Predict the structure.
Amino acid sequence: MLQRNLTRTLRTPLVRTFRSDLLGTDVWRSPYKDELAEARAAQEYADGGMLPTVKVAVTGGAGAIGYSLLFRIASGELFGKNQRVQIRCIELPFAMDALKGVAMELQDCAFPLLDGVYCTDDAERGFDDVDVALLVGSKPRGPGQERGDLLKENGAIFTKIGQALNKFARPTVKVTVVGNPANTNCLICANNAPDIPIENFTAMTRLDHDRGMGQLAKKAGVSVKSINDFCIWGNHSPTMYPDISRTLINGRPAMNVLAGAHAGVDMKQWYTDQFIPTVQQRGAAIIGARGASSAASAANACIMHARDWELGTNGSITSMAVPSKGEYGISPGLFFSYPVRTGGSQWEIVEGIDIDEFSAEKIKITENELKSERDAVSMYLPQ
């Protein structure tokens, strides 16, 4: 697990002023391993011990999603039960007291895999030498705010994040953008980190994927384990396209199974008039129902997204927003949600899918939205 840790480029520690007020716990470990320490860690693993510590940065750790996410990382749900983790929590200055309280709770859980928690409002320190970055924090949309204004405000934030990652994170860092508007935030971040391979940046559409899976399972009266080859195309927004045209339920076409379970009901109309809008608008529906956003399910999706990226999907299809190189006619450079498979700590877009006319129309709508978002934040995209 994560054996690339043993051969990563070693960096010279930076000289910085140590601020004890930024520590969330008293179990902070040095982020640096010299060659001898790396060799000892490799031998320890070869002898049946644990793997070298993985350093995970999480922005927005004091928020609702971050709070739901951090304890699951520390418990081993992200990388497995023999992988130590060190957590770097990055927050805005006003949230530091709340973040330190979260770190105290993490310490109180006595997680055996947790190799230290570090809380800071300095992104450069937080990203220093990290293996994984989960970018949860972003500026939320204010009352009456136009989407274009939100894009620009987050553009400035993710420009700085990308620059900090480029300067201080390991060149092999894997970056998952959760904070909305996720696809375009990821585009900005990746383009401001030119020394990190663009394939190391993804945006999360796993929550939309899981929402679609849940709705299908409920309608068909089956377990989600029975469903294969469902995917989300496009933007994490109400234009996303949840596609069941090739989905199988217990090995049979999804539409056939749904029609058998609901005799006399026009399932194509259900798909277009109910299923698609339900998945597209699920976040708003949850806010309307509970008065708060879907933090726990978003945190779960982040864990599943990053875990699948690292440990693989065993041939199954999932959904990730990844950089387009023109696959399926999508404009190159956009971060677009595709059906993907993962393995060997890499993702790949599923090729050879026949796109019918209905799907092509829906995919074009969400692509056009992403192109307009790209144009709106062009000032943050280095030429």
In short: Residues 147-168 form the longest helix (22 residues). Residues 56 and 308 are 16 Å apart (CA to CA). The radius of gyration is 21 Å. The mean pLDDT is 88.
